[in-house]
Amino acid sequence: MKVCILSDSHDHIPLLDAAVADAKTAGAEAVLHAGDLVAPSTLRCLEKYQLPVHVIHGNNTGDL
Questions:
Q1: pLDDT digits (tens, 9 = 90+) for 23-40
Q2: DSSP code of 1?
Q3: What is d(CA 20, CA 18) in angstroms, rounded to the nearest whole number?
């Protein structure tokens, strides 16, 4: 199983979106964000990929 592992995206939606798009193209079956997503609304950009997303709370994370 291939997993897309990310961290510290800090609400940079275009970069997060591009990274997950590349990972899905490469065969990723899930996303693990290892902290500092910041705003929960940032996750909405990942819905279109229909992958399970797991998020670890970081030190700059808002109301997840």
A1: 999 999 999 999 888 888
A2: -
A3: 6
